[in-house]
Amino acid sequence: VQLVESGGGLVQPGGSLRLSCAASGFTFSRYAMSWYRQAPGKERELVARISSTGVSADFADSVKGRFTISRDNAKNTAYLQMNSLKPEDTAVYYCYALLNWGQGTQVTVSA
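Request: output the structure for the sequence above.
Response:
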């Protein structure tokens, strides 16, 4: 299993970013995908999760209405669209599936 995140960066408050997670080594379309994040000095927390078919998704209360999660099973890729970003969204964002983590991508929200 390999999970490779991309799309992080520095963005101003109120801005947007889209993270991607390219997956390989397993049958992507059969499994739910999740995004977690970990801010400095804090525990890793679940941000969003999407079912294998993409029909259902769950979000942390802190990101509801601002973040969306999606997937393209033909491309073996999951996405996290982050809008209206706040400084408190600053963290390393990780893709997670089948007990495996990606390497993470840094998201920094700062003026």
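The chain is about 0% helix and 50% strand.
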